[in-house]
Specification:
Its cofactor is Mg(2+). It catalyses: GTP + H2O = GDP + phosphate + H(+). The chain is of the alpha/beta class. It has 8 helices and 7 strands, in the order H-E-H-E-E-H-E-H-H-E-H-E-H-H-E. A hairpin with a 2-residue loop joins strand 2 and strand 3 (about 85-95). The termini are far apart. The structure holds guanosine-5'-triphosphate (GTP). Guanosine-5'-triphosphate binds near residues 51 and 68. The site of guanosine-5'-triphosphate has 22 residues, from helix 2.
Length: about 240
């Protein structure tokens, strides 16, 4: 069994009474509310690894035999960038065409779109113009776009060269490109954080513009707090 399928969670409850009272004191500190909420959507053909990328980013897990997504699913992760605490909602869509009428409804609210293909499957790359049409039709014009060639760990089975994908991306205004591996956890945080950073850079925020590498303060799992948070302090979403 792949040990990476195990979810590692801290917080053992087996400590002494002194430890548990210290833990309960720690729990009473309310988490700082999010400044901003952002939605990002992941699209692409069936089996390219959309769910795997989302789960690697949000839970640091990888499943060798995931079930195909039905309709849409989502996960939330709080990240800190540019001095802001951002509640990132990631929508994972089904790649099967029969769900397009459901998934297309989620494009409009997305500030960022991750379009994924599988570097080992020609048809998933050939499908990209079809996904671009979906973006043109349903997404907001100012949504940030990122093309991701996933399964980089399968280099021996690669059929789409990096240059081919770069050429495709160069033809679409504003489409950035990178390769990643959900399995090996390569470039996964970078995908989402770069996208969020690009989104923030376009927003009229009164925060200093800093380089991405200097502005990642921390990555945190979503805290166990009720979803209703005080209104954001910044007018960013
Ligand atoms: N080798 C390798 N396999 C991967 C990677 N990412 C995903 N997979 C595998 O590819 C298969 C499909 O992954 P999913 O994440 O379910 O793909 P999806 O795009 O969400 O699929 P749909 O929900 O059907 O659209 C699974 O067997 C994953 O284990 C990767 O980076 N490398």
């Amino acid at each position: 069994m792949d040990p990476r399928c195990d979810v590692q969670r801290g917080g053992s409850t087996g400590g002494s009474s002194g430890d548990s009272s210290a833990a309960s004191r720690r729990r009473k500190v309310p988490p700082r509310p999010a400044d901003c909420k952002l939605q990002v959507i992941i699209i692409g053909s069936r089996g390219v690894g959309k769910t795997s990328l989302m789960e690697r980013f949000t839970d640091d897990t990888f499943c060798e035999a995931c079930k195909s997504t039905v309709g849409v699913d989502f996960k939330i992760k709080t990240v800190e960038l540019r001095g802001l605490k951002i509640r990132l909602q990631i929508w994972d869509t089904a790649g099967q065409e029969r769900f397009n009428s459901i998934t297309s409804a989620y494009y409009r609210g997305a500030k960022g779109i991750v379009l994924v293909y599988d570097i080992t499957k020609q048809e998933t790359f050939d499908d990209l113009p079809k996904w671009m049409k979906m973006i043109d039709k349903y997404a907001s014009e100012d949504a940030e776009l990122l093309l991701v060639g996933n399964k980089l760990d399968c280099e021996a089975d690669r059929v789409i060269t990096r240059q081919q994908a770069e050429r495709f991306a160069a033809r679409v205004s504003g489409l950035r490109f990178c390769e990643a591996s959900a399995k090996d956890n390569f470039n996964v945080d970078e995908i989402f954080l770069k996208l969020v950073d690009d989104i923030l850079s376009k927003m009229p925020l009164e925060v200093p513009r800093r380089e991405l590498s200097n502005s990642i303060l921390s990555l945190q799992p979503e805290p166990d707090v009720p979803p209703e948070l005080p209104p954001p302090r910044m007018r960013c979403c």
